[in-house]
Structure formats: C-alpha cells, structure tokens
Write a structure and sequence with these properties.
Layout lengths: L1 E6 L3 H10 L2 H4 L1 E7 L2 H11 L3 E5 L7 H11 L4 E6 L4 H9 L5 E3 L5 H34 L2 H13 L5 H10 L9 E8 L2 H6 L6 H19 L4 E7 L2 E7 L7 H9 L2 H8 L3 E5 L9 H10 L13 E2 L11 H10 L12 H17 L3 H12 L4 H8 L7 H23 L2 H12 L7 H7 L4 H12 L3 H19 L4 H7 L5 H12 L3 H9 L3
Parallel strand pairs: 1-2, 1-3, 3-4, 4-5, 9-10
Antiparallel strand pairs: 6-8, 6-9, 7-8
Length: 527
C-alpha cells in the first residue's frame, strides 16, 4: 500500500480530502498532514511517503516552490497538485516542472483523481523495477561493448576513421562486420526526446540507454531477416547498420519489421522511436554522408501523427508557404476568440485552416513553429502560457490537436465557474461517460433534474443541445484515438459510444470534412 502525505494550509480542506476519497480501496494510506511546503519537507525523511498531494497556494512555502525543492532533495517521490479553478495557470506551471497531475479540490472528480494517482503509482512501480535490476544490469553494462561501439561510430561520422580498410580492421577487433554490402543505415531517436530526458536523473540514464538498446537488439535479432550492427550515438539516439540485399529486405518488409519495435519499447519503457532510413549503399566511405542525411531527415517526423519509419526519397519535400497564405492566416488569427467571453469554435476553425495549408505545403518545421510562436505572442502572457506547451509537441498534428484541446479546456473551465450547478454537473457526467449509451433522460436522472428543464438550461448556457455536445465531445475523443493509433478504427467505435461504424464515419466526416482514414493520412502527411 502506497503512503500519501497531504499538504494544505486549510484544515477543512485537509479533512475534506482525507474523508472524501476511498483511499484504502484504491490501495493508498494517508501517512500524515502538513500545513505548508516547509513543514512537509521536514516530515518526508520520517514518513517516507510515495506520493504527496500538495496545495499550490500556501503561506511560508507554496506548492511550486516545494516542487522545485522536491526535485533536488527527494526526486523519487511523486507530487500531485491540489488546485482550485483560480489556480489553473499555476497548475500548468507545476505540470511543466514535473508534477504528475493535478486534482481539483472542488468540484470533486473521482475519476480524474484516481487517474492522477494511478499514473504516479505506475511511475513509482516502474522505478522500483528499474532499481531491482540495477545490480545485474550494471555488470552487463561493464562487460558489454556499447561504449566501444559508440566511440568507433563517432570516429567514422567525425571523419577520424575515413579509409575503408581501416574501418574494417578496427571494426573487426570489436566483432563489427563491415564487409557485407549493400547496407541500409537507420538513425533512431526517442520521440519527444526532451520530455523523455527530463523524466530521469543523469545517474539513471546509462541503464535506461542500455535497456533500450537491448530491447532493440533482441527484438530485431528475432524479427529482422538480415544481419545488423547497433551503435549508440547519444542519450535517446542510436544507429542501425543493416546488411541488406534488395531481394531479402524490401522497403515494405523493413518498414514492417521496424514498426515491430514499437510494442516492446512501449510496454517496457513507455517510449516510441522516430526512425529515418537511408537508401541502399555499397561503399563504406559514404557512410558518414548517409548518417548526416538520415539524421537531417528526422525532421519529416514533424508532419506525422504517430512516428513511423521515414524513407526520405518517398517523403513530400518541405515547401515554403506563400507569403499571401501566411498573411491570410495572420489576419484571421482569432485573438478575441481566446478571451474569456468567446466560444472556442472560431479558434478551432482557424486551426483547421492552418492544418489545411500546412498539410498542402509542409513548410520547414522551424518556419512552422516560428509562425505559431509569433501568433501566440499576440496574446497576453497569462493567456499565452498554456498554449505555448503545445509548441513542444514532437509533431504538427499533435500540436494542432493540443491547441484545440487546451482552448476547449480553458473554455470549459471558464464556463464551469459561470454555469448553473445542474448544467456543470451534466457536463461532468457526460465527459466521464462518453463511452456509454447516453440519453438526456439518463443524465437528468443522474443529477436529479427534469429532462425538459435540463435540456432547456443546457442549450441556453452551453450554446448547443445536450445531443450536439455529446457528439462534439465524442468526435474530439475519436481524433485523439486516431492520432494515438492504439486502436483500429472499428475498435474505437465502442469506446466513444457510437452504435455502428458506418454512423461514426458519417458523423466524423460531417464534423471534420474527412473520413477517419483521411484524417489519419492527413496527420501522417500522406496525399
């Protein structure tokens, strides 16, 4: 059972949190309580909590300051922020600083609280598994040759080793086979590497790197019908050199085998790879140039929804967006739609325009990000901050989806403050039960209100009928699942509450202008 420390300066809030949630049933126990961050830091050594629930705004030491101290003094303890609606901007800062999530103190949302706790618990379990394997893995790391392979490959790409005979001779000393052309070179990098690296301390990174390389080596040894060499480059990036005759390893087969790396890496390390594959080549002296090109072609990842192997010769080249299109987008940027009184639909329509133009031209990622940053800089700092996190997403489709999601969340939270209680409860119930067969009568019964009056008040305050709200939320959830790629199209239908696949496709096209497959292809940058 995992121990929890509660930190809040309001005694009533502490009592409320202690008695509201079914801690024991969920597998947790309250180890203690503190009234501010400084007091809590003094209790950690004795109580040894696994998870800390900490209020954001407190005297003496607030939650954000405590979070910074925790990262230095107790990096193994997970923090979840307790927040009121007025603290939401601070909650976003906390997430960017390493908090596992946040829990609203009011209104209570059992599902969201359980989800945040379970995420923290899963991270702790993963760390424990890592610690349990450290001793064994450290011996293996010391005895294996990955560090020597890295040094060898570094000398090739830096030009220190340039002569074929010398490459072959030095490689043979390390049991590296370089006399079986033709070759394919593949540069592999952890997707969203910045966030991945921030999750771990420097002392843990060598073992994480070894674990990833071993998963890759073992999986490809079983799946790949060709010999290969594996070279670490730096944390989160490595290179494969494959001995590939064209008859034995077509592009299609190679793509299929590389995609099979995804399952074990997701299962054991919660990572995905973006991979860039070079053309076939014979001569070793071009290896340095092939590496540089393949690494550069990782930029094509920016127009994929989920990462999949990049064959640069088959990619649509980047093209600059005509100045006139940028001017139109700039003029149409709906700054007012992001104010506290506007509906988010105008901003979502603008993002759809952006998706259409970027999908057509595929500008260089740096140019695309620069334009988006320029647009967000028009907003006041307080309003822009939540949206800036979307620019850190590893691809444009994820950035676009994140921008729309943040806009919707901000709008819902502002509405939540103003909505009549029965309408707010109805929205919460709908959002938690999108996969169920929902009806106005069911929702009204749940919140103990008459269906006709609820329907009237909902339309008046939300601006759409209950049915239209349910449908719009289901379409947004469908987009998320389609981008995530975890389920086949027909599998996600039940998860989002549609009765048939054909009806889902009809509604999806009506709302987005695309079929589900067209939406996925657009996210991948395919024509």
């Amino acid at each position: 059972m995992k121990r929890i420390l509660l930190v809040d300066d309001e005694p009533l809030a502490l009592k409320h949190i202690r008695h509201t949630y079914p801690w024991k049933e969920w597998g947790y126990e309250i180890a203690g309580e503190a009234g501010n961050g400084e007091e809590a830091l003094g209790m950690i050594a004795e109580l040894q909590p696994h998870i800390i629930l900490v209020d954001i705004t407190m005297p003496v030491m607030d939650g954000l300051s405590m979070l910074k101290e925790m990262k230095v003094r107790y990096p193994g303890v997970r923090c979840i922020m307790l927040t009121a609606h007025r603290d939401f901007d601070y909650a976003q800062q906390a997430l960017q600083s390493g908090a596992m999530g946040y829990i609203l103190k009011s209104p209570i949302d059992m599902e969201a609280a359980r989800s945040a706790l379970d995420r923290a618990s899963a991270e702790l379990d993963k760390e424990l598994d890592l610690e349990n394997n450290k001793r064994v893995r450290r011996k293996i790391v010391q005895s294996y040759q990955y560090s020597l392979r890295k040094d060898f490959f570094d000398k090739i790409i830096s030009g220190v080793l340039a002569e074929r005979q010398e490459m072959v001779r030095v490689g043979a000393e390390l049991d590296i086979e370089l006399e079986m052309p033709p070759f394919r070179l593949i540069v592999c990098r952890v997707d969203d590497l910045t966030r991945y690296a921030a999750r771990y301390s420097e002392k843990d990174k060598p073992l994480l790197e070894f674990s990833m390389l071993e998963i890759v080596r073992e999986t490809l040894s079983e799946k790949l019908p060709a010999g290969f060499e594996l070279f670490p480059n730096r944390f989160g990036q490595f290179t494969l050199l494959i001995h590939a005759s064209k008859s034995a390893l077509s592009d299609e087969l190679l793509r299929e085998r590389l995609i099979q790396l995804e399952k074990p890496l997701q299962q054991f390390m919660s990572v995905r790879l973006c991979m860039s594959v070079s053309p076939s080549f014979e001569a070793l002296h071009v290896l340095r140039r092939m590496y540089a090109r393949a690494e550069q072609h990782l930029l094509y990842r920016y127009y994929q929804g989920n990462p999949y192997p990049i064959f640069a010769e088959k990619e649509i080249p980047f093209q600059p967006v005509p100045r006139g299109h940028f001017d139109q987008l700039s003029a149409a940027f709906p700054k007012e739609a992001l104010s506290e009184n506007e509906n988010p639909q105008a901003f979502q329509t603008w993002v759809q325009q952006l998706e259409r133009i970027f999908g057509e031209y595929r500008p260089e990622p740096a140019a695309a990000k620069s334009f988006l940053k320029e647009m967000l800089q028009r907003l006041p700092d307080r309003m822009a901050q939540p949206y800036e996190a979307a620019l850190e997403e590893p691809s444009f489709p994820l950035t676009a989806a994140s921008l729309c999601r943040i806009c919707e969340e901000q709008h819902r939270r502002r509405q939540q403050k103003r909505l009549r209680p029965e309408v707010a409860l109805a929205k919460q119930y709908i959002d938690r039960h999108l996969g169920d067969d929902l009806s106005l009568e069911d929702i009204a019964r749940e919140i103990q209100f008459s269906p006709s009056h609820l329907g009237h008040m909902f339309k008046k305050e939300v601006g759409m009928t209950v049915f239209d709200y349910i449908l719009s939320r289901r379409i947004e959830m469908a987009k998320k699942y389609l981008l995530d790629g975890q389920y086949r199209n027909y599998e996600l239908v039940d998860r989002i509450g549609f009765n048939s696949y054909s009806y889902f496709c009809t509604m999806f096209k009506k709302h987005t202008g695309m079929t589900p497959n067209e939406f996925k292809n657009a996210a991948r940058g395919e024509k």
